[in-house]
Specification:
- The structure is a homodimer of 311-residue chains.
- Chain A folds into 2 domains: 15-145, 60s Ribosomal Protein L30, Chain: A (2-Layer Sandwich); 152-301, Phosphoribosyl-aminoimidazole Synthetase, Chain A, domain 2 (Alpha-Beta Complex), CATH 3.90.650.10.
- The first copy, chain A, has 8 helices and 13 strands.
- The first copy, chain A, is globular and about 55 Å long.
- Chain A has helices at residues 8-16, 65-81, 102-118, 182-190, 204-215, 230-234, 241-247, 263-273, and strands spanning 25-27, 34-36, 44-54, 86-96, 122-130, 135-145, 160-164, 196-200, 218-222, 253-258, 278-285, 291-295, 298-301.
- Chain A is of the alpha+beta class and 311 residues long.
- The longest helix of chain A is centred in the first third of the chain and has 17 residues, at 65-81.
- The model of chain A has no long low-confidence stretch (mean pLDDT 93).
- The interface between A and B is large, with 81 and 81 residues.
Chain lengths: 311, 311
């Protein structure tokens, strides 16, 4: 067995068995961020996250330098948003072939710095090394009021499922320009609206499977409710816009569950607070691990998969 | 100008100018770790560090998997040791070509986990991605009692200079097996012995230049005092063992300064505490930025350089 024919999730499960934990780890491998608790009297928990962008995987050689930097930091901030957290400090590991112009590297850091400034994030260190491929590895520390991190595992059958913004066709440009949903994530956590939350990075179908696996529930998506992005509708390939919305990935929108009894109050509060769309796309069910798509009243098991590394 | 003909330090200086800071950053880019302070009443400062190991740069394709994992984590723990800190939580970004056997990846994590367990470190997350080259990027969070982190910048003219262990020839195997000097670093910080400290990762000459640049001093190394490793003495190439000790890098020993008036007390205390060698190799001088080597009473400016990426 090599890294080619094992799925990313399966690989991570195998590796997670090998490594030690500590009593102060509230949530470890398997959520958007790790959550650690530093002291009995501290008023904050700490969120830890790392994520790479790699040329040829996450961006093409022709991508603008500033957009690469924006994406690299944005991906990690999106994960902190998905816990409801506030990002604080960032380290950057740069890997670059010797032929890369310094101007391109500076452009990447400029894009990164612009997004960091907008969210009050400090870039405090990192490392530079020569390698065959241009890569940025971003490590971020965030914080959240103690006990308030929204995990993937808190969903209950009957909870309504929501996504922010619209999904699909991110490869047309949005994957380099998206805005991490930090304000929205913090608001969802502070108001105790969300029982479970994650960001949509590998496609709604794949990511929702992860959420229901963590929550021990099933889920049904109502096909007609999925907010398909204009970019996905414009794509003239052989796949329907809905399939793009379910599987493209790199949307970096928030996917979360809200208790059914709070549905009306939540939707009203969201509308008062934000102009960003927030769409109810379905609900969590009791059929553990089963992801269904409902089309014209008929439910079928959903087999569309999103993007997964190593498959 | 491309990444090939700018030095690593010069590149980092240029990038550091582009990125934002925060008021809670005690020490940012340019020390072994970043130091951040989270609250007015907190009893600890936090240390943040990231560092990669890359096949073809930090290890060869034939290196044993467990040794690669050991080295990857060991490098970062060595930096935390160099501030006097205690490592707590670690994230790992794995980049792997699809052809790498899962058994090899598991071996790397096993080596990493073994070292983590020995120092009470939890591995709490990370990411896996496909790429052309096998790489591990390690991100670690450590802590140190508030205000006690030993920076590179605290050295004063007249301070005695020490290194732990012996230097040179690490490429013969030690670079895959070294033990991060965590206990020693914590002891040096807790006892307020060291005014400035760093780990020797790019060779004594290069790293000491960084320490004196940060401290605004010069330094003189007494050639006869440098503890040359047995491995460096066995090397039968055209470079003298001393040159290896000054320039090879990847020693992961501690380099630190102690006020001259504490010299006797320090050396006695060290001997009582540790069996590990600690050698006085010279002292800090007033000649800002000037690194000298003293051989048979004659001082000359030292031009030997250690390993630097991008040159």
């Amino acid at each position: 067995m090599n890294a080619c024919n094992i799925g990313e999730d399966a690989l991570i499960r195998r590796l997670a068995k090998l490594v030690p934990g500590r009593a102060d780890v509230v949530a470890g491998i398997g959520d958007d961020c790790a959550v650690v608790r530093t002291g009995r009297r501290d008023s904050f928990d700490w969120l830890l996250k790392s994520d790479p962008v790699i040329e040829g995987v996450h961006f093409t050689p022709t991508a603008p330098a500033e957009a690469i930097g924006h994406k690299a930091l944005g991906r990690v901030l999106s994960d902190i948003a998905a816990m409801g957290g506030e990002p604080m400090w960032v380290l950057i590991d740069l890997v670059a072939p010797a032929s890369v112009p310094v101007k391109r590297i500076e452009g990447m850091y400029r894009g990164l710095a612009k997004l960091a400034r907008r969210h009050g994030v400090a870039i405090v260190g990192g490392d530079t090394a020569r390698g065959k491929t241009l890569e940025l590895h971003i490590f971020a520390v965030g914080r959240i009021p103690r006990g308030r991190a929204v995990l993937r595992s808190g969903g209950k059958p009957g909870d309504s499922l929501y996504v922010t913004g619209s999904l699909g066709g991110s490869g047309q440009g949005r994957h380099l320009r998206f805005e991490p949903r930090l304000v929205e994530g913090q608001w969802l956590a502070a108001g105790k609206w969300a029982t479970a939350m994650m960001d949509v990075s590998d496609g709604l179908a794949t990511d929702l499977r992860r959420l229901i696996a963590a929550s021990g529930t099933g889920a049904v998506i109502e096909a007609a409710r999925v907010p398909v992005s204009p970019a996905a509708k414009r794509l003239l390939d052989r796949r329907a816009p809905l399939v793009h919305a379910l599987s493209d990935g790199e949307d970096f929108e928030l996917l979360f569950a809200v208790p059914r009894r709070k549905k009306t109050a939540f939707e009203a509060a969201w509308s008062r607070q934000f102009r960003l769309a927030c769409t109810r796309i379905g609900e969590l069910t009791e059929k553990s691990g089963r992801l269904e798509l409902e089309t014209r009243g008929i439910r079928r098991v959903l087999n569309v998969r999103g993007y997964e590394h190593f498959t």
